[in-house]
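Training component of the fellowship. As part of building independent skills, the fellow (R.M.) carried out the full modelling exercise for a liganded target. The chosen ligand was iron/sulfur cluster. The inputs are recorded below so that the supervisory panel can assess the work.
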Amino acid sequence: MPHVVTQSCVGDGSCVYACPVNCIQPSPDDPAFELAEMLHVDPRSCMDCGACISACPVDAIKPHTQLTEAERVFTGINAEYYAVPRERPIMAPLRRRLIVKDRGEPLRVAIVGSGPAAMYAAEELLTVPGALVDVYERLDRPFGLVRSGVAPDHRRTRRVSRQMERIRDHDRLTLHLGVEVGRDVTHDGLLQDHHAVIYAVGAASDRRLEIPGAELPGVLSATQLVGWYNGHPDHEEDAPDLSHRRAIVIGNGNVALDVARVLTQDPDALGDTEIAPYALQALRESRVEEVVVLARRGVEAAAFTLPELVGLRATPGVALDVPDAELASVDPGHAKGDLLRSLPAPAPGDRRIALRFLRNPTAVVGEGTVEALEVERTAIGPDGALVGTGETERLDAGLIVTSIGYRGLPVGDLPYDAARGVVPNAAGRVVDPATAEPHAGTYVAGWIKRGPSGFIGTNKGCSQDTVAALIDDWNAGVLGSVSVPVVRPAASEGMRRRARLRALAGQAFAGRR
Ligand SMILES: Cc1cc2nc3c(=O)[nH]c(=O)nc-3n(C[C@H](O)[C@H](O)[C@H](O)COP(=O)(O)OP(=O)(O)OC[C@H]3O[C@@H](n4cnc5c(N)ncnc54)[C@H](O)[C@@H]3O)c2cc1C
Ligand code: SF4
Ligand code: SF4
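Fellow's submitted model of the complex:
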C-alpha cells in the first residue's frame, strides 16, 4: 500500500529529495510547485520505503494503512493528481548548492524577522563555511506566523517550529529577541556590522474592507482576531464580541476557515493547544452558534484549499452547511464541489459554519456597534466578470471578521510598492523601482518580497533564491566590508541551551553515581 500526503503539508519539498524513486510531485523545480495546494505521492510508483516520513517536518505523510477515517480521502486526492499522466525524470531534482568564494573573512549577515522566510534564509546561509548569522526579532518569541498565525488546532502544522528550533540552535546563529529594526537598531547600524541585511518581516497588515460602516466596533480584521487567539502582544486587546449567536467572516481563504473553525468548535478541543488562555476562556463563554463565511464568487473560485476543507469537514461538533442551489452549477468531478455535496448530516448540538457563495458585502449596519451586514447577491457574467444582481439581504450578526488578504507595510527608508504591499526587488535584491539600481547589501525574503501567498514551505525556495543572489554579490565583491572585527558569537542562544543541557546531563549522571 502506498504512502499518502495528508492535510498538514506545508509544501517545503523536503520529501521530494528524500524519495528514491521521485514519486512525490510537483517537485520544487516544477512551475506547478508554487501553486500546488499540497504534494502528492504517486501510488503506482511508491515502494513504501518510508524515507519521506522522516524528511517531513510536520508529519504529513503516512502509510496508507495508518490513515484515520477522516484522512482516507487523501488517498484519492494523492492518486487523482496522477490521473493525467505526467512526465517526470526517474531521479528527484538535485538540490541547489551554493558556490562561495573565499574572501579571507567570514560572511556576516543580519536577518530581520524570525518567521519561516528568515529561518529558511538562515539555514541556507549556514551552509556557507564560517558564515555568521544574526537574526533580529521584534517580539520576545520567534518564528513569526508559525506561532502567531497558524491556527492552534493545526497541531501538526505547528510542528514545523521543531525544524526552526534546529536552525535557531546552530552555533553560528545568534537570535536577538525583542529587538525591532528601525526602532532599536538602524539599517545603517546593521550594515556596519554585517556584509548584508535580509528583511523577512512578513505582511503585518490587512487589506481593508471599504464599505460604509466598516469602521464600526465589532468589525475586526483577521490579523486582529488571529493575533488575539494566538496571544500576539499587539493584539491581546482585540477581544471579539462573542455575545451574539452569529458571526460573519468575509472572505473564504484558509485563514477565513481557520477563524470560523476556532469560533465554532468545542473549546475543550483547544484546551491542549497553544491558544492564549484568555482566548480559550472567552471561547468557553461564547454564545456564537453560527459563523457565516461569505465569498463574492462561486464554489469553483473558492479560495480555501482542498486539504483545509477536508480538515474542516472532519471537525467534531461543527456542521458545515452549503445550500444545494449554490452547488447546482458545479460540475461533478470538481473536488471541492464533490466534498461539499457529500457533507455529513449535522448532529444535535452541533454549531454551524454556513459557506455562502456569490455574495458581496455592501454595508455594515449598526448604531455604535455592529448589528448586521448587508450583502448583494452576485453572478458571473458571460465574460467571467462578477456582476451585482440587485438582490440584497441582511444578515444579523454581532461580529464581522474581514479576511480578504494580508499586506506588507513599508520598511524604514526602503522603496515600497504601495499597490502590492511589497518591497520592490529583483530575485530578492532590493531595487529602486525607478532606476532598477540595487540597494547595496539589502535583500528581502518571504511575504515582504513576493506578497502574502503560499504556505510555510513556499518561503524555503523564496529564501534560497534570495541567498543565491546575495552569494552572487559576495562572489562578485560588491558587498561592503564590515567595520567591526568579526568575532564568533561568544555564546548564541543555541550554545547556551546546549551548555545548560550538558550541565543537566552531567548533574543527572553525577546523581546516578
Ligand atoms: C493566519 C495565518 C494562518 C496561516 N496558516 C498556515 C498554515 O496552516 N500552513 C501553512 O503552510 N501556512 C500558513 N500560513 C502562511 C505562513 O504563515 C506564511 O507563509 C509565512 O509565515 C510567511 O513567512 P514570513 O517569514 O515572510 O513572515 P512572518 O511569518 O510574518 O514573519 C515575519 C517576522 O518578522 C518580525 N518582524 C517584523 N518587523 C520587524 C522588525 N522591524 N524588526 C524585527 N522583527 C520584525 C515579525 O514579528 C515576525 O516574527 C498562515 C498565514 C496566516 C496569516
Ligand atoms: S515511501 Fe519511499 S517511495 Fe514512497 S513516497 Fe515515500 S520516499 Fe517515495
Ligand atoms: S510538508 Fe514538506 S516534506 Fe511534508 S509532505 Fe509536504 S512537502 Fe513533503
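The panel noted the following from the submitted structure. The chain has three domains: 3-80, 108-204+408-497, 210-405. The mean pLDDT is 92.
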